[in-house]
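REQUEST
  id: r-88c1
  op: predict_structure
  target: Lipoprotein-anchoring transpeptidase ErfK/SrfK
  payload:
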Amino acid sequence: MTASRLSLTLSAATLALAAAGATAQEGSTDPAQIAEETRRVLEQSGGEPATPQGEAGAAATEAPAPQGEAGASGTAQTQTQPAQPQPGQGDPAQPQPTMPPASSNAQPETLRMLGQPAPEAAPVENGAISLPGAGQASDGAPTPNEIEAATYQGGPLPEGQSALTAKLQILLDRAHVSPGVIDGWKGGMSQSAIAAFETREGLAVDGELDPEVWQALGGTATGPVLSAYTITAEDVSGLNPPLPEDYAKLAEMQRLGYASTAEKLAERFHMDEGFLKELNPGATWAEGESITVADPGPRAETRVARIEVRKQSNRLAGFDAEGRMVVNYPVTIGSDQTPSPSGTVEVVAVAMEPTYTYRPDVNFQQGDNDETLILPPGPNGPVGSVWIDLSQETYGLHGTSDPDSIFDAASHGCVRLTNWDVEELAHLVSEGVTVEFVE
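RESPONSE
  id: r-88c1
  status: 200
  body:
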């Protein structure tokens, strides 16, 4: 990464920083290693509150190289210029309240998050949620009814894809400990999320589901974890045909948007696109159609004062001013050949919907393109929907066009998150928030 310098020119939709404050699930990260790394997250979480700032003093103008087959991103460079305010993408519908039982071991922060409102779910009949497309899903995937009825009865998570794992992933997401894509598959990313949740809640950390974790998540008393959603006119508009690989052709486009309504809605509800289709086997994805989606809950609201990127566990943790972990996400970091930074840097600025400048003279050669090209913004651009610029030149935290690559692949040194996770983080950070890279 440090040998590369691709420029990321912010579009007019640059967000000024706030003043006040997969299927990667099949990754094979060792649970014991995950547990050991995650256990240390809170041991050094003293954290200093971020100093409130006015408008961001700088905005990123150079960005990581686009993701290749290994999911890599390139390098970034910044220059000082005013960042223009730009509202973020709309939040998903708000969920109905779900409270853990009185005997829950959940810590206060988890109790607060579980108590936030949730979107209205379909009516429950005879103990099972009645949702459109609730028949047998294709390829043996769990049905909506099976997911709603799933409960933990001891032992490890089932191997492969299961209703219980899908439900667990949604509950973790609601607690702001991201499992990455919600797809129902057991794997290293879900295990790392369990370990992060155990650490935050003061439970024994082993990355495995057990009665204490299930109870702390409110699994014994939760309401519906799926919701019925009606497709809108906006959902079916503004779509791109499948994007070409040639950067010269991409540069001619107005926006690098979603290729289908299913892809757009999968990202909105934090789901693997294939899993969304499996839950809705007869869907036509037309305006007015009702489909079944995961209900990941509202975004976190507690401001982040300090960030840790833990390289061994491939997780990013955000802490408030008192040192409490408030968000935790899976990430892709640099490889040994193109490593991520070491030590501590700071957040400089945030760009929503960044454009991407390809410069073959200072970076790699893409196809036959030997001239500078400016690629338009969009969630399927090389840095996804958000760029969080860091004080170490050419580095940043950013989104991705391929959420399934998170956790397993390697970047060119930057830190890559799913678009929905980095969008949430972008609304929680301020200029001056520290980012510590932990080996």
